[in-house]
Structures are given as C-alpha cells and as structure tokens.
Design goal:
The complex is a heterodimer of chains A (about 325) and B (about 525). Chain A has helices spanning about 5-30, 35-45, 50-60, 65-75, 90-125, 130-145, 150-160, 180-220, 220-230, 235-255, 260-270, 275-285, 290-320, 320-325. Chain A has about 325 residues and is mainly alpha-helical. In chain A, helix 5 (about 90-125) runs antiparallel to helix 6 (about 130-145), helix 5 (about 90-125) runs parallel beside helix 13 (about 290-320) and helix 12 runs antiparallel to helix 13. Chain A is globular, with a radius of gyration of 24 Å. Chain B is about 25% helix and about 20% strand. In chain B, the strands form five sheets. In chain B, strands 8-9-10-1-11-18-12 form a seven-stranded mixed sheet, with helices on both faces. In chain B, a hairpin with a 2-residue loop joins strand 6 and strand 7. Chain B is globular and about 80 Å long. Classes of the chains: A mainly alpha (about 325), B alpha+beta (about 525). At the A-B interface, helix 2, helix 3, helix 5, helix 7 and helix 11 of A face strand 8, strand 10, helix 6 and helix 12 of B.
Chain lengths: ~325, ~525
C-alpha cells in the first residue's frame, strides 16, 4: 500500500473515532444525575427555583436528550465548540487561553523524559551489571510506582517548603505582567521546572527501561556481532548500529503515551495550579459545564489521533521493515 | 409624619477613621497584596452572581451603599446617610457627593435605582429586594426605596456583595446583564480598586482607583488575587510568604499548623454575615426519619464534642441552631442534645423500633456532597451503630449528583453546610419555610419540614424592623425547630482568614474578605 493510501485510511478511522468520542461522552455527561444549574446554584450559595428554571431553559437543558445531542453534533460539525454555561464565554476562547500552557508543559516534559530516559537507558545497557544499571532500575521502579500527584507534592515540600528555591505554583509572577518578554519567559521557565520534572518522572522511568531492554536485545543480535567482528570501533557499533535500531519501540511508545501524558498533565496542573487545559477540564467536570468538557475532549482526542498518525508515519521513515509491509 | 430611625450624618472620611481599630502605627500607603481565592469566578459582577468566588474580587471593584463593621453596625459607604420611615415602607438614601465610576462618570441615584432593579431581576436570592416596589430618584443624589412591607433584611442586603452599584450607562445597554461582556473584561466599577487583568485559572489583578470617593484610600497600590484551588498549596504559599492573605481556609489540620507560625495571623473573624452552619439534615418525609423521636434519638447519639475536638481540632464554633452563632438572633438556650446514648435508645424503643437479635433496629443512609463533609458522614456509621441504627454512607461523584439526590428528596440523612447570607430572611427562612419545599432546588427546604407556627413566626420576623421583637420571634422559632429537629445543627464551618503579620487592618468585619479592602495596608 502506498503511503498516501495508508494516510487516507488512518484519517478515515480517526474521523469515526472522533464521532464516537463526541456521542459517547455527551451521552455519559448528560445521563449523570444533576446538571450545570445545580453546580451554578452550589457556587452561588443557593438560588431560587425560578433562577434555576431560567438557567435550564436558557441552555436548553429542559429539552429532550436527542434534541440536545443533535444540536451539539450539528454545531461541532460547523466547527463551533459552543458557549460555556459556567464561564459565560466561548469555549474556543477558553481553550485557546489555556492551550499554550498545557502544550508547554507536555512537550517540555516529554523532551526531558526522552532525553534523560534515552541517556540512562543507554548507560545501563552498556554496563548491564554495573551500579548505573542498579540506579536506572531503581529510578524506573520509583517513577512508575509513585503516583504523579504524590511526586508533585513531595517536590513541593522539598523545594518550596523545606528548601525554598522554586515557587509553589502558577505559571508567572503576577508582578511581571508589564515586564519585558524575556523577563516573563525566564520567570515562566522558573515556574515550569517542578511541574515539568513531575510529569517527566513517570515517562522517564518508562523510556529508560524500554531503551535498556531494546538495546540489550539489539546488542545480542547477529549484525552487531558482525559489525564488531569486522573491527568497527565499539562506540560506532553502539551508537550508529545498535542505538538507531533500538529507537523503534521508544518512538512507538512515546507516541502512544501522548494521550496518557495529557491525562497526567491534568493531575500535575492541579497540584501546581498550572493554568492549562487540565485545570480547566477539572473545573468544568466539577461544574458540569458540558460544552467546555466536550470541547476539551474533542480537542484532546483530535490531538491524540493526529499524534498517533504522525507516529505511524515517523516509524515508517526510521524503520524500513514497516515500509516494506 | 416620618420619624428618623437611623441617621448617620458624619462625613464618610470621619467614619472611616472611627471604624479603624486603634493601632499605634500609621497605615502606610503603597505596595502589592498577594492573596488567594479558591476558584475561578464565573465572572466579576456580584450584582448578578452570588458566591464567595465572585464576591472577593467583586467587592473591590464595586462599592455598595452600606458597609458593616465587626459589631453588625451599618456604616456609611456610597450612602452618606439613610433614613427608614417610621412605618418602615420607605427608605431614603443620600449618596456621597463626588463619587465616580472607574470611567470617570458620576455615580447618581439613577445608577442606584438601576442596580437595585438589576439585582432584583437577576440575583439568585429573590428575598433580598422582593418587597422593594419602586426606587424614586427625586435628584441625582437622592434615592427613595418604596416597600410593600417593612423589610428588616434591607440594610444588610444593601451591603458588601449583595448590592453592587453598577453603572447604568454600561450595563443598561440592553444586553442580558447575566452574560454582559463587561462582567469579565473592561469592568467599569465603583469600588476602591479597578480591574487590570482577569485571567481565568490564574489570577485577578486589581489596581487602586485614584479617584475613589474616600479621600486617601485605598492604601494598597495593587491586589493580586491568585486562583489556587488546592488547600495544601495555599498553606505552603502562606508559610513561604508567597501569599500574604487567604480567606475561607477551612481545613482544621492546616489551620492548626498555620496558627503555630509566628509570621502569620489566623483569625476566625469575618464570617458572621456569610454565616455557614453545618448540620445533619433529615428527610422528614422519610419512612423512619419522619418520626421526631427517631431524629431526636440520632441527635442524642451523635457526640458534638467529639466532632468538634477530634474532627475539627477545636477550630469550629458549636452551632445549636440553623442561625449562625455569630448572628444577633442566635439563641443558645435551645435543647443541645448533648451525648446521651441511654436516652437515645429509650426514644427509639418508644418510637416502636425494638432491637433485633443482632442488636440492630433499622437501616438508614447518610449522604455527603463534597470531600470536606466526608469525615462527618463516616463518623455517623460507628456512632449510630451504638443505638442500633445500621448506617450506610452514600457518596456522590460530584456536587450536582448530590444536589440532585437531596433536592429530589432521595435521601434519609445528609451532611450539609448552608450559609445564612447576612439576615435570616435571606439565608435561614429558605431552609424551614413550607412554601419553599421545591423539587430540584438545592438548599431550599429539602427536609420537607412543615409547621404552620414556624411559617408564621418567620413571616412576622421578616416584616418588622423592631430588632427586639425580631429577637423574640426568632427565639421562639429556634425553640420549636430545635424540638422538632428537621435538621441537627452541629457546628459553624471553621472558616479562617490567614494573613501575614505584615498585613495591617486585616478584614475582620462581618463580611470578612468579601468586603472592600480599602483600609488594608502593608507594614
């Protein structure tokens, strides 16, 4: 099959998945007891009956479910994510305000996790019975076993309460809203360190184990023995021949993990008050703000689908065996 | 003939000085106060949105007609003087001269009339201005409220976040005030601070309004309200000095920990008007809980002392009635239901529920709606087992799920926390009035309690300005509901304001941090 055909097929599957995500989630949110009028009343310390009735009729919550779903699908088909009941603002605007913060957190933590994970994995594979290997194994177990919110709180206690070197949360000091752009960026970087390390910790563990395992497998294969036998330098064998071939699993997993990274970001954002999509998602779920929840789910499934397609394409480029198939 | 019941004719500036607690040092001007609010407000206009998330920034942006001090006394604010006629049917308000909105336009009686109309039509608490029929504006500085009946809650309803004076030339443009763009962006307020930036999920930044109508105030240059939903994050930020103030802190463990910190001032003052009371509510139409003896037995079996000592770590005041203990109408002489397991068992025997061979009489469920209420609901299980009631704790996935269950009367018992909102007319009547048994409305009379005498007492207390008379009426009301016990009040929420010792004039008035912080300064 040609690359274009495969791409078209993948996009087709993606669209079906996207529709399923919309219908399923809308149904689940709507059939749950209670609605946004209850959460608005809760937020306001109570409300009179007519106020609640007015909220319900304004947002069409008193209409039959099929009508509500139909309306939502037709608006999303027109690429209109709707209007947030809770925040009185267009969902697109709410999401676009928050998206950069989440993208910054997700990509920076992934880059950190891949870079350090790869390094540790290679080091461990090079000396399988060494102390380094022991440390990598320990870190992997720890990073994998520790819940991410716990790691986050632990880092806050260590680096904010006991040894105050980092701010406790947020993305930028409010005093810098009039400052120069580079001052703001330095400040954002400073706020980014702890949430980035926290989110990276899980994947760091995963990637280092994966790299080590696939490196060890590749190092035992015939072509590596051949390379060594023909007298190539050990470093060249290691990095040029073995490493390149053991990258496949890492790329696959990193791509597949993307959806998990987004859900991990929800937790990390909550712990560090990071003003991203995760905190917005959490607040919208608690508030039953259906348009906002749906908007975020729609967007994140879109991102996951696109990233998965891209992973597929990258794999085809770095591994000729897949291309042939 | 009109008799002047209440006139305060001192200049606003003098009143400001008088209301300031005597302190050795002179308040300093300038500086930025960084404080926390716990969630992103829906928007910043309290005229059409109740709740503390909007109230804290909203009362900085918008001034009200009156403000209240620590002792429930009304003080002049945008209203320089106010007079209630002897029949209680008319209230004349004289506005302070020279007050302007943040766009420079003068604040006139037209704006007051417009604000009252807007609040009356859009605010979730209809009882606040329901008796106000018209607002007359004979001149730019005078507004006369005409009432259908005396309305004792009116003065409180004209204070803090309950009545924000909003500009008619901005909000009167025909758009729905509930979704008006100027509720979140480009807010044109009347209060001590103007809006610099509102970033959802991040912060609300406010800056002093140079032409504020009180000379020399506010002291602060800026207030940064950071939106920090996580209580441990806030506690650490207070300890590290990143935050200088946070209101509505209610986790007993954090309060006890922060109290030990010498650089922090932890105060329970400032919550009397909001008046949060925690109780165990009964469904009085439930199969077992319809019997007052069963409800009394449960009250005798629950150890309020234990709850306050072990669960609240001594941070929460005891509440014996649905009226907050900080209210002038609170009656502490009602039956307290101090722990008495024998009496509880006797009451249940009397009610005809004999113990079975396994020592149990019947089963009940107890609900809770949000995580802070969980320990109290869980406490009920082992405690009520002692009198033979098999309690199942039912959790709800989120607030709307719980609200739906309780407001459609699908429950036996639930832990709840309801706010008084200043006057009992606004926040207490709704819990007991038989008119207010409304399906699907949370914090209505979800207990489905109905007593003609109680209805009558509330109606009388809500239609007289004589506060001694009101005290008597509310005392009888509290005695009756304490005996019939549609709900068993346990404690007032342990809300505390934590501030750095470098913060001067921390907000201790009855409205706490939901009042203008114009006198707060940094040492």
């Amino acid at each position: 099959m040609s690359l274009g055909k495969i791409l078209a097929k993948r996009i087709g599957y993606g669209l079906i998945l996207l529709i399923a995500v919309v219908v399923l989630n809308f149904t689940l949110i709507t059939i749950a007891p209670g609605d946004v009028a209850d959460s608005i009343a809760g937020d306001m310390g109570g409300a009179d009956a007519e106020v609640l009735a007015e909220i319900r009729s304004r947002y069409g919550l008193d209409r039959p479910f099929a009508v509500q779903l139909g309306r939502y699908i037709s608006s999303i088909a027109a690429l209109d994510l709707g209007y947030s009941y809770f925040y009185n603002a267009p969902v697109t605007e709410l999401i676009l305000q928050r998206l950069p913060a989440t993208l910054l957190l997700v990509f920076s933590s992934q880059i950190l996790a891949i870079a350090v994970g790869l390094l540790l994995g290679v080091m461990a594979a090079r000396k399988p019975n060494s102390f380094t290997n022991l440390i990598v194994t320990f870190l992997s177990l720890f990073g994998f076993a520790a819940p991410v919110f716990w790691t986050g709180i632990l880092l806050i206690i260590l680096f904010v309460a006991i040894w105050p070197v980092f701010p406790v949360g947020g993305m930028m000091s409010a005093s810098l809203i009039d400052a120069l752009w580079y001052e703001q960026w330095i400040n954002i970087g400073y706020h980014l360190v702890l949430p980035m390390v926290t989110l990276a910790s899980i994947y760091l563990a995963l990637y280092s184990r994966l790299t080590r395992a696939s490196m060890q497998e590749v190092l035992g294969s015939d072509y590596v023995r051949t390379a060594r036998a023909k007298g190539l330098a050990e470093n060249k064998v290691f990095y040029k021949h073995a490493l390149k071939n053991s990258l496949g699993p890492l790329v696959t997993v990193a791509g597949l993990q993307f959806s998990a990274v987004i859900s991990g970001a929800v937790v990390v954002e909550a712990v560090f008050s990071w003003p991203g999509l995760g905190t917005l998602a959490l607040q919208s779920i608690l508030a039953r703000d259906t348009p906002t929840i749906m908007g975020i789910l729609f967007l994140s499934s879109l991102v996951v689908i696109v990233v998965n397609i891209l992973t597929d394409m990258i794999l085809r480029m770095i591994d000729p065996r897949i291309r042939a198939d | 003939m009109k008799r002047i019941l209440k006139t305060v004719a001192t200049s606003v500036a003098t009143a400001a000085l008088l209301a300031t607690p005597t302190i050795a040092e002179e308040p300093k001007k300038g500086g930025t106060l960084t404080m926390a609010i716990q969630q992103t407000p829906r928007h910043l206009n309290p005229a059409v949105q109740s709740g503390t998330a909007t109230g804290q920034p909203g009362t900085q942006l918008f001034a009200s007609l009156l403000r209240y001090d620590e002792g429930w006394n009304p003080q002049p604010f945008l209203a320089e003087t106010w007079e209630v006629s002897s029949d209680g049917l008319s209230v004349t308000i004289n506005l302070v001269k020279g007050a302007t909105f943040h766009d420079g336009a003068p604040i006139t009686s037209e704006d007051v009339a417009f604000s009252i109309d807007t609040v009356k039509a859009n605010h979730p608490f209809k009882s606040m201005f329901a008796p106000v029929e018209t607002v007359e504006t004979p001149d730019a500085n005078t507004a006369i409220l005409k009432l259908s009946k005396p309305h004792p809650a009116l003065l409180l309803a004209m204070s803090s976040q309950l009545l924000s004076i909003i500009p008619k030339h901005v909000y009167g443009d025909g758009q729905d005030p509930k979704s008006h763009p100027a509720n979140s962006e480009g807010v044109v307020g009347s209060g001590p601070f103007k809006l610099v930036e509102f970033k959802r999920g991040e912060h609300v930044i406010l800056e002093r309004y140079e032409n504020y109508f009180i000379e020399g105030l506010p002291y602060l240059d800026r207030i940064v309200m950071r939106i920090l939903p996580d209580e441990s994050t806030r506690a650490i930020a207070l300890e590290s000095g990143e935050l200088q103030m946070s209101g509505f802190e209610s986790n007993p463990r954090n309060i006890v920990r922060l109290k030990k910190n010498g650089a922090l001032r932890v105060s329970s003052e400032g919550y009397a008007a909001i008046g949060p009371v925690n109780w165990l509510a009964f469904n009085t139409k439930g199969e077992k809980t319809s019997d007052p003896k069963v409800r009394q037995a449960i009250a005798y079996a629950v150890d309020r002392e234990f709850i306050n000592k072990a669960l609240n770590l001594g941070t929460a005041p005891t509440a014996l009635t649905g009226i907050h203990p900080g209210s002038p109408f609170y009656d502490a002489t009602v039956e307290a239901y101090d722990l008495d397991i024998d009496k509880a068992n006797a009451l249940l025997d009397e009610a005809g529920y004999a113990k079975g061979s396994d020592g149990m009489r019947f089963a009940l469920s107890v609900d809770y709606g949000w995580p802070a209420m969980k320990p109290y609901a869980e406490y009920m299980k082992p405690q009520l087992k002692k009198i033979g009631i098999d309690v199942a704790v039912r959790s709800s996935a989120d607030f709307p799920t719980w609200a739906k269950r309780i407001s459609t009367w699908d429950f036996d018992m639930t832990m709840d926390n309801v706010f008084n909102w200043g006057d009992p007319v606004i926040g207490v009547h709704r819990t007991y009035s038989s008119d207010n048994i409304k399906e699907g409305v949370i914090w209505s009379n979800t207990q489905q309690y109905s007593n003609a005498r109680v209805d009558e007492l509330m109606e009388m207390a809500g239609a007289t300005n004589d506060s001694n008379k009101r005290k008597e009426l509310y005392a009888e009301f509290q005695q009756i509901v304490a005996n019939e016990l549609p709900l068993y009040p346990i404690f007032a929420s342990p809300y505390h304001t934590v501030s750095s010792t470098s913060v001067g004039n921390a907000p201790d008035s009855v409205w706490g941090t939901s009042s203008p912080l114009d006198r707060v300064y940094l040492k």
